[in-house]
Amino acid sequence: MRGAYASTVISADAGDVWAFLREFGNLHEWLPGVSTCEIEDGAPLAPGVVRRVDGAGGVFRERLLTLDDEERTLTYAIIESPLPMRDYHATCRAAPVTDSGQTFVEWYASFAADDPEKIAKILTRGVFVPGLESLRKRFG
C-alpha cells in the first residue's frame, strides 16, 4: 500500500488545535472544497460514526476508527469515494512543540490503488496540504 503525507506547524497551543481538529463533523469549516459535512450514523465522537462529506470532488463517506485524546490522534477510513482507491486509512495528529508552545500537525494515509502515485499526489496536494494550510491560518 502507498501513502500520502503532509505536515505543518501551527502557532497555537496543541490543546486548542486538537479541540477543533477532533470534531469529526466539522470538516466543512476548515477543509477547502468541502461544502457540507454531516454525521450520518452514530454519536459524533464515538468510533464507528460515519460522516458524509460533499465537495467539488464528489461524495465521500468516512468512518471514525479511533479517537485518542491523550495522544491527540484520530484515525478514519473511507468507505465510499469517487477516487479510484481502496483500503484507505488516514490519521491526523496534533503534537505540542515543547520549546515554542506551537503545534505540529500531521495528516497521513495509506491506501491501495491501480495508480498509487497519482492518488498520493491528489491527496497530498489537493487535500492534505490545503487542509493543513487552512488550519494554520485559522489559528495563526
TrEMBL record:
<dbReference type="InterPro" id="IPR023393">
    <property type="entry name" value="START-like_dom_sf"/>
</dbReference>
<dbReference type="InterPro" id="IPR019587">
    <property type="entry name" value="Polyketide_cyclase/dehydratase"/>
</dbReference>
<protein>
    <submittedName>
        <fullName>Polyketide cyclase / dehydrase and lipid transport</fullName>
    </submittedName>
</protein>
<dbReference type="Pfam" id="PF10604">
    <property type="entry name" value="Polyketide_cyc2"/>
</dbReference>
